[in-house]
Design goal:
The complex is a heterodimer of chains A (about 290) and B (about 400). With about 290 residues, chain A is α/β, with parallel strands linked by helices. Chain A has three domains: about 5-75 and about 115-195, 3-Layer(aba) Sandwich (Rossmann fold), CATH 3.40.50; about 80-110; about 200-295. Chain A is about 50% helix and about 15% strand. Chain A is built from 15 helices and nine strands. Chain A has helices at about 5-15, 20-30, 45-55, 70-75, 80-95, 100-105, 115-120, 140-150, 185-190, 200-210, 215-230, 240-250, 260-265, 275-280, 285-294; strands at about 35-40, 60-65, 75-80, 115, 130-135, 155, 160-165, 170-175, 190-195. Chain A has a five-stranded parallel β-sheet with strand order 2-5-8-1-9. A two-stranded antiparallel ribbon of chain A has the order 3-4. In chain A, a hairpin with a 3-residue loop joins strand 6 (about 155) and strand 7. In chain A, helix 10 (about 200-210) packs across helix 11 and helix 11 packs across helix 15. With about 400 residues, chain B is an alpha/beta fold. Chain B has four domains: about 1-95; about 100-150, no CATH class; about 190-225, no CATH class; about 225-400, Rossmann fold (3-Layer(aba) Sandwich), CATH 3.40.50.410. In chain B, helix 22 (about 370-375) links the parallel strand 10 (about 350-355) and strand 11. The longest helix of chain B is centred in the middle third of the chain and has 17 residues, at about 165-180. The chains are: A alpha/beta (about 290), B alpha/beta (about 400). The interface between A and B is large, with 46 and 41 residues.
C-alpha cells in the first residue's frame, strides 16, 4: 500500500490541500475498495475531494446529487421511451409486423437503456470516482437501496437481467448531518470527519488556488476568516467563501484590509450569507476582529 | 497481503486487536468481529507501520460518526500504550468509560455516586451490548432500586400515581389517535397506482408490447403518503408541574406509535429523552424520566432551551415534514424578543409549530404572559391541553396538517 503522505503530496500538486487523516482515508478507500463517508459542515471542501481524487487517478468523476424523494429510476437506469415508440413505428412501416417477442427483445436492448449515474459508474472499464453527494438529503429507502448496491456492485434490470460491475468504482459519500445515517451504512463505509482548516492549512489552500495573491494580504484574510468563524454565526463561512472573498478583495484592489473599512464592511457579503449574520457583524465587530488579526 | 498472513499466524497481535475492538466497543463504538479482521488487514497493508500511521488508518476504518472520530485519538494510546489509563478515567472521565458517558452531567446531583448504584442506567445498557446484556437480565429492576432510594421526592410520587395502568392506557390511546391524525403528508416519490395523475411510461410500454406498441392500456403512478415526523419539546418547570406528568405519558405514547419521533425536556436547560422514554417497561421509563426532571432547577428558560435545540439538534431532528409540538405555559424568565427570534428560526426549518398551553383551558385565560404574546405570531396552532380530554379534542385540528 502506498504511504498516505505520498498521496497527500500528490493531492497538493493538483491544488487540493488535505489533512493527513483525510489522505489516509483516501489511500485506504482506494486500496481496500470500501466506500468513504465524509462528514462535515457545508463548505469545508468535501465535494472537491472527489474532484481532486478523480484528477489524481486520471479517471472520470461521476456525480450523483441526492435530494428528498430521489428514487432508483433517477439513479440507476431508465428506458428511452421516445426512441422505443419511434422504433416500434419504424419497424411497422418498413418490415411489417414483427413478432411480439422479437420486438420486445429489440426495444429492451442496451441501445435503449439510459444509464443514470449509479449504473454508469459500475459500467466503466477504468474504475471511476463515484461521488454520492449529500446522502443525508435522500430518504431512508434510498439509503437502503444504495447499501445493497454497494455490497454487491450489481444491478438487476428486469428486462435485461443482472448487470455485473465491470470495475468497482471509488465511492465517496458526503453528508452534512441533516439526518442521522443508518448504522449499517456507517459500518459499510470508511469514515472521515472534515473540519474547517486551521490557519496554516487555509493559507496553503489560498496560495494554491490564488498564486498571484500577496502573502501578507493572504495571511490577513485567513486570519480574519478564522476569527470570524469563532463568532456566533448562523452560517459559518467555509473555504469557498474565503476564496470568494479573497477574489473580491483582489478585484477591488484592496492591499491592506484596514485601509478602507467601509469597503471592507461591504465586501463581507462574500462571507456572511444570512440576514441575521450580516446584522450581527457590525463595523465595530469587524474592527475588533481586524485588531486581533494584526 | 503476505504481512496479513504472518499476523494471522501469530495469536498475539490478533488477540491484541480483538481486545482493542472490545475496548472501543465498550466506549460506544458500533463494531463487530468483521471489524477485527478489517483492522488486521489494514495494519498488514501498511508498508511502514508507524504508531501515527496505524492510528490514522484505524481511525478511518473504525470510526462511524463524528463523536467516534473525535474520541479515537484519546482512546488509541490508552489501549496500545497503556498510557493515561488513570489519567483518562480521572481527567477525561466521560470519554473513556461507557457508564459515565451515558450519564448526563445533570444527573450527578440526583444519582448517588456510581459505585453505589451498582450498574449504569439508561443508554449505557444498550451501548455496552454483548456481555452487558446478560447483566441486564440479572438486574432488570436496577432503576427501580434507585427510585426507591429516593422515595421522599414528591415529584416521583406524583409520577407513581399517574403510572396506574388505566392512565397509561388512556394516554397512549389518545396519543395514538393524534398520531394517526397527523401521520401522513405527500411524498415526491411515485409508485404504481390504478388511479394516479401521471403516466407510468415504463410500465405502459412494457404492457402494450403485445398491442404492437400501441398504448391501449395506460398505467399510472401516484404519490404515496409518507409519515410526518414529530418533535416534542416538553416544559417540565415548576409552573408546569401539574401537567407535565400527563404530557410525559402522552409523549411516550407518541414515541411508541411513530416511526420517527423525538422528545426533549426543558426547564432551564434542554435534554433529549427519546431513548429514556422508549424503554419497553413503562414503569422503568417513568422512573428514568422523573430522575431527569429532578435534575433541573430554577425558572423556565424557554428561549434558551429553544436556542439550544436550534443550535444542537434542529438540523438533524427536523426536516420539511416535521411537526414541532411545544408543551409549555409560556412563563419565561427571559426577554420575549429572544423567544420570538428562536421560534422564527425554528419556523424556517419545521413544517408546522403547534403550541399546547394547559392554561388556555382555564376560563378567562388570555395569553398575556409576555413571552406567550411574543410567541403567538410564529405559531401555526395554539391550543389548550390541560387534560387528556383536551388533548383528544386536538385530533381534528391536527388532521388538517
Amino acid at each position: 500500500m502506498k504511504d498516505y503522505k505520498e498521496l497527500q503530496a500528490e493531492l497538493a500538486e493538483t491544488g487540493y490541500i488535505a489533512e493527513g487523516s483525510l489522505a489516509m482515508a483516501l489511500t485506504l478507500a482506494t486500496e481496500i475498495h470500501r466506500p468513504l463517508l465524509l462528514e462535515g459542515e457545508a463548505g469545508v471542501g468535501k465535494t472537491d475531494i472527489a474532484r481532486a481524487l478523480a484528477a489524481l487517478l486520471g479517471t472520470r468523476l461521476i456525480r450523483l446529487q441526492c435530494y428528498e424523494g430521489l428514487d432508483a429510476n433517477a439513479t440507476l437506469y431508465e428506458w428511452n421511451y421516445q426512441r422505443q415508440l419511434l422504433s416500434i413505428r419504424a419497424r411497422e412501416a418498413t418490415e411489417g409486423a414483427d413478432s411480439a417477442e422479437s420486438l420486445e427483445k429489440h426495444i429492451f436492448s442496451e441501445d435503449y437503456l439510459l444509464r443514470r449515474p449509479l449504473l454508469e459508474a459500475i459500467s466503466q472499464l477504468e474504475p471511476p470516482v463515484l461521488l454520492i453527494d449529500e446522502i443525508d438529503r435522500a430518504d431512508e429507502e434510498f439509503e437502503a437501496f444504495l447499501l445493497e448496491l454497494l455490497a454487491d456492485y450489481q444491478v438487476t434490470v428486469p428486462e435485461l437481467g443482472t448487470i455485473e460491475a465491470v470495475s468497482i468504482p471509488h465511492v465517496i459519500l458526503t453528508s452534512n448531518g441533516t439526518r442521522a445515517l443508518s448504522d449499517a451504512l456507517r459500518r459499510r463505509c470508511l469514515y472521515s470527519f472534515v473540519d474547517y482548516p486551521d490557519a496554516e492549512k487555509e493559507r496553503a489552500i489560498l496560495a494554491a488556488r490564488m498564486p498571484e495573491i500577496d502573502a501578507e494580504l493572504a495571511r490577513r484574510i485567513v486570519g480574519f476568516v478564522q476569527q470570524l468563524r469563532r463568532e456566533d454565526l448562523e452560517k459559518v463561512p467555509g473555504i469557498a467563501e474565503t476564496l470568494d472573498w479573497a477574489t473580491a478583495l483582489v478585484g477591488l484592489r484592496v492591499d491592506k484590509l484596514e485601509d478602507n473599512l467601509e469597503l471592507l464592511q461591504a465586501s463581507l457579503i462574500c462571507l456572511l450569507k444570512t440576514e441575521a449574520d450580516q446584522r450581527a457583524i457590525v463595523p465595530e465587530v469587524t474592527r475588533r476582529l481586524l485588531g486581533k488579526v494584526a | 497481503m503476505t504481512e496479513t498472513g504472518e499476523i494471522d499466524a501469530l495469536p498475539g497481535p490478533r488477540e491484541r486487536m480483538r481486545g482493542f475492538i472490545a475496548h472501543l466497543r465498550l466506549n460506544g463504538f458500533t463494531l463487530g468481529p468483521s471489524e477485527t479482521a478489517l483492522a488486521l488487514d489494514i495494519v498488514g497493508r501498511l508498508e511502514r507501520p508507524t504508531p501515527d500511521g496505524v492510528r490514522a488508518a484505524l481511525k478511518v476504518a473504525l470510526s462511524g460518526c463524528r463523536e467516534d472520530w473525535e474520541r479515537f485519538d484519546d482512546l488509541f494510546p490508552v489501549y496500545w500504550f497503556g498510557e493515561g489509563v488513570k489519567r483518562a478515567t480521572v481527567l477525561r472521565g466521560e470519554n473513556t468509560s461507557t457508564p459515565k458517558r451515558a450519564r448526563p452531567a445533570l444527573w450527578d446531583k440526583v444519582l448517588p455516586p456510581e459505585e453505589s448504584v451498582g450498574r449504569p442506567i439508561g443508554a449505557a445498557a444498550q451501548a455496552a451490548g454483548g456481555s452487558d446484556a446478560e447483566e441486564d437480565t440479572d438486574a432488570p429492576s436496577a432503576p427501580h432500586r434507585i427510585a426507591a432510594d429516593r422515595r421522599d421526592s414528591l415529584f416521583k410520587t406524583d409520577l407513581r400515581e399517574i403510572a396506574a395502568k388505566e392512565d397509561i392506557a388512556e394516554a397512549e390511546r389518545v396519543a395514538e389517535r393524534l398520531a394517526k391524525a397527523m401521520r401522513y403528508r405527500l411524498s415526491r416519490r411515485r409508485k404504481p397506482s390504478a388511479r394516479g395523475r401521471s403516466l407510468d411510461l415504463r410500465r405502459t410500454i412494457r404492457r402494450n408490447i403485445a398491442h404492437g406498441g400501441e398504448p391501449v392500456d395506460l398505467l399510472r403512478r401516484t404519490r404515496p403518503d409518507r409519515p410526518v415526523r414529530v418533535v416534542v419539546l416538553l416544559d417540565v418547570s415548576g409552573s408546569m408541574k401539574l401537567y407535565s406528568r400527563y404530557f410525559l405519558l402522552f409523549v411516550r405514547g407518541l414515541l411508541s406509535r411513530w416511526m420517527r419521533a423525538d422528545a426533549y425536556l426543558f426547564h432551564t436547560r434542554l435534554v433529549r429523552v427519546t431513548e429514556a422514554l422508549t424503554d419497553k417497561d413503562p414503569f422503568r421509563a417513568l422512573a428514568k424520566l422523573s430522575l431527569m426532571i429532578e435534575g433541573f432547577g430554577g425558572g423556565t428558560r424557554i428561549a434558551g432551551a429553544l436556542a439550544d435545540f436550534n443550535a444542537r439538534y434542529a438540523k438533524e431532528a427536523i426536516d420539511s415534514r416535521t411537526v414541532v409540538v411545544i408543551l409549555s405555559d409560556g412563563y419565561d424568565t427571559e426577554a420575549p424578543e429572544d423567544l420570538a427570534r428562536e421560534l422564527k428560526r425554528l419556523r424556517t426549518r419545521a413544517r408546522r409549530i403547534v403550541w399546547l398551553n394547559p392554561l388556555l383551558g382555564w376560563k378567562d385565560y388570555e395569553p398575556v404572559a409576555r413571552g406567550m404574546a411574543a410567541a403567538l405570531p410564529h405559531i401555526d396552532h395554539f391550543a389548550a391541553a390541560n387534560s387528556l380530554q383536551a388533548l383528544a379534542a386536538l385530533e381534528p385540528e391536527l388532521a388538517a396538517i
